């Protein structure tokens, strides 16, 4: 099982534009493991599908390193609100 924790961010601070930003005390946490079927728990229903960016990213890393493992079970605890300018990358 792999665990990933990412902070919310706020960028475009003053004259720094995208060069200056801060990490906030809001986090999204993911646990991923291989499984026989795709299962996404704790994910917003809009992202509960194979197009989920976490799943796509994990599978891309596996392909890059030559691994045949792919993530099929993701358990998420998402505290970062979507579409609130708090780091869409998270």
Q: Could you walk me through the main structural features you see in this protein, from its secondary elements to its overall organization?
A:
The chain is of the alpha+beta class and 90 residues long. Helix content is 13%, strand content 33%. It is built from one helix and four strands, in the order E-E-E-H-E. Strand 3, helix 1 and strand 4 form a beta-alpha-beta unit. The two termini are 20 Å apart. The model has no long low-confidence stretch (mean pLDDT 79).
Short description:
This protein has 90 residues and is of the alpha+beta class. It has one helix at residues 53-64; strands at residues 2-10, 22-33, 39-41, 73-78. The protein has a four-stranded mixed beta sheet with strand order 1-2-4-3, with no helix packed on it.
Question: Layout of helices and strands, plus pairs?
Answer:
Layout: E1 2-10, E2 22-33, E3 39-41, H1 53-64, E4 73-78
Parallel strand pairs: 3-4
Antiparallel strand pairs: 1-2, 2-4
Which structural class best describes the helix and strand composition? alpha+beta
Question: What is the multimeric organization of the chains shown?
Answer: single chain
> Share of helix among residues?
10-25%
Strand order of the largest sheet: 1-2-4-3
Q: Output the radius of gyration.
A: 15 Å
**Intertermini distance:** 20 Å
Report the sheet-strand fraction.
25-35%
Biggest sheet: strands, sense, closure?
4 strands, mixed
């Amino acid at each position: 099982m792999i665990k990933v924790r990412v902070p919310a961010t706020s960028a475009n601070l003053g004259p720094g534009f995208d060069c200056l930003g801060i990490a906030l005390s809001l986090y999204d946490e993911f646990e991923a493991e291989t499984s026989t079927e795709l299962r996404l728990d704790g994910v917003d229903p809009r992202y509960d599908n194979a197009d989920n960016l976490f799943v796509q990213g994990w599978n891309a890393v596996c392909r890059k390193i030559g691994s045949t493992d792919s993530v099929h079970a993701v358990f998420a605890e998402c505290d970062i609100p979507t579409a609130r300018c708090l780091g869409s990358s998270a």
